[in-house]
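Field reference: sequence -> structure
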Amino acid sequence: MTTAAPLPRADSPDRTESAERSAGADTPRARRFTPGPIFGAIAQLAALGIVGPVIATVLFGLLGAGLGLVPALGVGLVLLVAFVYALFGLAWLEYARVDGLYGLGLPPLAPRRRTRPGFSGFLLVIWHQFIDGTMWRAIASVAISTVLGLVVLPLVTAVASGVVLAFAPLYAHSGLARLAVIGGVDIPVVWTPLVGVLVAVLGLAALGGIALLHGIIARSILVPSREAMFAARVQVSDQRREGAMRASEVERTRIERDLHDGVQPRLVSVGMTLGLAQQKIDDDPGAAKALIEEAHTSTKAAITELRQLARGIHASVLDDRGLDAALSALAARSHVPVHLDVRLEGRCAKTAEAAVYFVIAESLTNAAKHSRASECRVIVRVRDGGTLWARVEDNGIGGARVLPGGGLDGISNRVLAAGGTVRLDSPVGGPTSLEVSVPCAS
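Structure field:
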């Protein structure tokens, strides 16, 4: 059972983050239009004209077979799932093809992620993938490019024929005194160079026009408008703000609960013990001394709890010595043995380090309290692209859920506020793994 924290929601976070990064002044649509590599476009269109119909046949075959075998639920469902992800693969290739051809800086197409556990969650993510507008725009681009490729193929043949005609006088001595060209019309050899050059020039002009048309259509379909980019940026900002507010609310509730259930009763007990000691100090000094010692012990325990609570709010070692040292201290205090594998070069932003730190701290706390784990493994890296990535694994009983107001909900919203993503995988019976990715410069 794979469960995603509330961060991804209906949209892929990778796509919204990429849209946000692309929503600056230097957006693909904001750049001045250039014709692009015309010959590369012609070659790709010609290839699509050959393989495109084959791909369409395979896709329609999968769809037809899947729908026809729906009564045999297992077989039909497998074929329909294969059809959906074949569409996604084709769309991903189209984005990569167009971006590689024109250098538009398009974000890579990312698959939808689960938002619910179980079989219903699997069906839901398949449905969301099938209705993904971004994927279908890429499919439309493939279809149009295939049609253009079917036009390109005869034009390429015409250009080749024109070149042959242009050099016809060179092999006229072979007995070909006259050449049949279009509709069985014979052209004298003396005119073939002119006709050949004309056909070749017209064919090349048509090919160039089709290549330019392909570039315009691809940009129109695959490059989001500036309005859409700004809308995506606003949406991500709203999600971050909402996540920050929810994270602060969960944190406030946790602090209130810890104070109410832990420190407050202990301090009340200290006050009552000191009051009893005050009453007995004249009549029974020995009992009063014992009560004072008890109050002293309770006071030290309350101070320890307050320190732990303060450490849960802010880890000073994180600011002073960095994430590696803070995680080492965290692992040393853990009630479950922790294998720590941290490889970092330099520091990330405080927001990113704090988000990852508290994710790991909450995960280790859950492992000790709920999962019955005997060991944990923590891996932290800075991946290409400047992303701080961490993975926490335990060998417990699994079954972890993101519940409103719970610890996982709190860390999910904290990561969302930092612009990151969380992925939880916790099947019943275990093991449990939690992955988090946060922009290092958040």
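Note: DSSP finds twelve helices and eight strands in the chain.
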